Amino acid sequence: MPDGQGSSPTNTARRHFIGLAAAAGARLAAFAAFSATVTSSAAAKEAGKRGIDLGLGRGRDGVGKGGPLCLLRGTAILTSKGETAIEDLRIGDLVKTVRGELLPVKWIGRHVYRRASSTWNESVVPIRIRRFALDEQTPRKDLYLSSGHALYIDGVFIRPSDLVNGTSIDPALPGDSDVLEYYQIVLATHEAVLAEGAPVETFLVEGSNYEEFTNGAEYAQLYPVGEHTSMKPFAKTVGYGGREHLNALLRLATHQLVPPRSPLEDVYVRVAARAGDLLS
After folding, report:
1. CA-CA distance, 223 to 188, in Å (whole number)?
2. In this structure, are strands 192-195 and 151-153 parallel, antiparallel, or unpaired?
3. Which residue among 52, 61, 102, 256 has its CA within the 20 to 30 Å range from the CA of 187?
4. Residues 233, 190: contact at Cβ < 8 Å?
5. 35 Cβ partners below 8 Å, 6+ apart?
6. How far apart are CA 230 and CA 148, in angstroms?
């Protein structure tokens, strides 16, 4: 078929290949950046002990926090009354889970980061999941998650940092601001809820990890020790680490027809190929 008159199976396959190769190359660069972030985060912790400010966002109390596991302010969550911005949720509000149940909010955790230099520390910059990056309907608008806040896809949890492809999923800020506010939903159990139409995890309470939030003391007051227990994960979290991740990306770039070796690789290939179609 002549150019400009339609898309043949060959052209479609070519676009998928180009998109996948480009995404894999971008992901290699992104992986290197995230590796550098891990190193810089460790340096920030050490510097913090010595009173040195490396530009890491700080909580309301001025104490440097670890990387957030949350959704950015303004994210729409599906509730019994329709979609509600996460910062407007209150204890007792009913949110809809991927299982179709309506469960009451037990608490809303909050992280506040303030830019202390001309640039943000990479560990707190959100990952942007562009509109329709996951499929033809999901998410319904750009979704901003912290790098470790998992999406629920194909029955498993996958961190957005493992899906970065430099096009449809990448680190990005929604605007120019000196403050980043992240929020996290705590239910009685670990669940997956809908954020901008995309399934994402709620907070997994494990011991006293709620103390990582800026308002963690509030949770302790509401639920004293002995009145809360660690939660069972709703689903398995899959991911890569170190050399295994790098090798997987090289397989994607050079042998895209090789069957995926893990659920994460399967999802990454699918999303990366879709990114090529979105750009065409």
Report:
1. 12
2. unpaired
3. 61
4. yes
5. none
6. 19
Phi, psi of 85 (to 5 degrees): -60, 135
Q: How many CB atoms lie within 10 A of CB 190?
A: 19
CATH class of the domain defined by 71-278: mainly beta
Strands of 55-106 (E only): list them.
71-72, 76-79, 82-85, 94-96, 102-104
Burial of 90 (0-12, 13-18, 19+ CB in 10 A): exposed
- Residue 240 and residue 264: Cα distance in Å, rounded? 8
**Cβ(40)–Cβ(123) below 8 Å:** yes
Put residue 169 in one of left, alpha, beta given phi > 0 → left and psi -120 to 50 → alpha.
beta
Per-residue pLDDT tens over the stretch 90-148: 999 999 999 999 999 999 999 999 998 888 988 899 999 999 999 999 999 999 999 99
Distance between alpha carbon 214 and the CA centroid of its chain, in Å? 19
Q: What residue spans define the domains of the chain?
A: 71-278
Contact 268, 252 (CB under 8 A): yes
Q: Do 1 and 259 meet the contact criterion of CB atoms below 8 Å apart?
A: no
Q: List pLDDT tens digits, range 194-251.
A: 999 999 999 999 988 999 999 999 999 999 876 667 899 999 999 875 555 565 566 5
Q: Show the tokens assigned to 95.
A: 């949110």
Residue-by-residue DSSP string for 225-271? TTS--PPPPSS-EE---HHHHHHHHHHHHH-TTSPPSSHHHHHHHHH
Q: How many CB atoms lie within 10 A of CB 92?
A: 8
* The dihedral formed by the CA atoms of 75, 205, 178 and 74, expressed in degrees to the nearest 10: 10
In this structure, the chain runs to a length of 280
